[in-house]
Every structure is written in structure tokens, then in C-alpha cells.
Predict the structure.
Amino acid sequence: MLQRLEEPHVVRSKLSWEGGDLQFVANPQDPSRIILAHGTTARAYWGPELTAKEYSYILRVEFGADDVLDLSQLGPHADYLVAFLPADRTALVSQLVSGNPDVARAAAFELVGSFPAGAPLEFRAVATAAAAWDGSDKKAGRALVDSISAARQKLEGLADANDPQITHRLNEYITKYCPKNPEICFNAVGTVQMLDQDRELLRASISQEVAAALHQLLRPLLLDLVEAQVSPPQGRESRLDDVVTKLEDWGFRVVRTPHLATKTFHTLWPGASYANMLVFDRHLFVPTLGLGQVEENFIAKLRDDLHGAYDIVPVDARTSLINNGGVHCVFGIIR
């Protein structure tokens, strides 16, 4: 792929970066001036020893930008924090959602539903406490945080029970094809053989493993999202307001877009950002985590804020969101 880029009409940068961490847009008041928005993830590849000002300066010079929007103090990726709609001179900026009992309940109920064979008592207690919290009752908030702590302790060593029917079918298959060494059935050659002999069993067993792995990642994050509604990250909003002021000074209309983040979002999981969308002509492909009505309300408000000028398409992006991504993160389109 890199060799294909060595064509006369292509200039390869000396830098390497994650695409979602660098975004370019024309200044609405002077389209001849290019604005570069960047986070901090790309910095780890080649410039960790640089100061913030040095890093921004080198990016600006390297890519020929005129102005820089430094988002590195707000999150790892620029596309988790801002999305540009150049045709309407609009910037969608992530707005931390906190103190929202609907979000806490939706995440807690989704947590309970992630257990195929029924949630343990500790996780049902989180849903019960979330249902009793109205967003302002401090006593109920403390009870919710306590229930989350108990559920986290329960998470250690917790694994989904396998479907007994799939287990029975796998045992029959092993007895028939590899009774002396079951591992042979599941190595590269054995997997190809299972594809020929029993494709549906292979599909079912892989789906079961994938679902179990997804649940292992998802559950602690859902607990974090519930807790973040009671105890939100601190110190982010004032820095975000500075970014909004800068964008407005450049001539952008700013629309706040929900961001469900945890207290440790900057160093661990960046949360679910609905600004991490793919902008394609008049279509906005917006990621969803699977929180039902809460996210439907988010999208309805975004549609209203944009005055119906865009076709907003919800995309089930749970797998990419819990792996530190979103819709924009997994697409690269240059129009």
C-alpha cells in the first residue's frame, strides 16, 4: 500500500499518525486559510519529547496549515471531540453528559441485559439503584456508587456460561473428528475442516466466543458510564468552552453533541462520542452504543439543532466504541 503512494502526484508526509487525530477544514471567514485540529494520540508515534507548542507548530508547518486547534488537553483523538460540517460553517463539539438519570438507567439496564443466563444480584442492584436516583438525591447517588463498587468486585473472574446445546454439539464433533487431541479441531487446519463438516457449528461457536469477549469489555465500561453520571470528570468543561470560543471567533456555528465519558476518559477509555461521525455529503452516520431511547433522544435533538439539513443515520457501533473508536475512526474518506 505504501509503495502505491510513491506515485508522482502523491506527496507522502514524513510523519505517521492516526487519521482520526488530525482534521483539516477551511476557515469560514477566509477559505484560503486552513485550520488543523489535532489531539494527542499521534504524538506518541514520533514526538513524545516535544512540548505542546512545538508539536502544534511542527504539525502546522508539515501540513501547510495556517491555524491550529489544539485539543490535546481534552482527549486523545480530535474526531472524538469535534466534527466539521464545512458546507454549513458548523462545528459539532462534544459536550460531556453528566447528572443524567436517564443515561444512568439505560446503561445499568443494558448491563443487566448483557448476561445471557441472567445477571448476578450485584448487577441487578446497580439497575435498582439507578432507577431510584433522580439526578439530584445525594443519598441515592451514594447508594448507586456503592452498588457499582460491589459489582466491580464481582466482575473479577466472571465469565459467561456457555450455551449447553453448543457445548453438546462441540463434544460430539470432537468425539468424531479429534478424540485423542481436541485442540486439533480448533487449530488452523481443524477450523477449515469444521467449515466443511459443520459450518453452522463453527458459526455458533465463534459467535458465542465473540459475544463473551464483547461482554467482558462492555460490562466494566457500562459501570463506568453509570458512575460518571453521579461523579463526572472534573476540569474539562472550562477548557472545552475555550475551544468553542475559538471556533466561534473563526466563524463557525457551534452545535454541542453528547459525549458519554468516564472519569478516566483521557487516559483509558474515551467513552462514546456522538461527534465521532462520518460526514458524507448531506448524510451524517452517527455511532450508537445501544442505549435505546436515550440515544434516540440525542439524535432527535441533533437533527433539530441542524434544522433538518442533514439525513442522520444511526449506526450500531458498539464494538468499535468500546474499542476506543467510532464511525469516523473506522472510515477514511477524502471528498
Notes: The beta strands are 22-27, 30-38, 67-70, 82-85, 90-96, 253-260, 272-273, 278-280, 283-288, 311-316. The chain is about 45% helix and 15% strand.
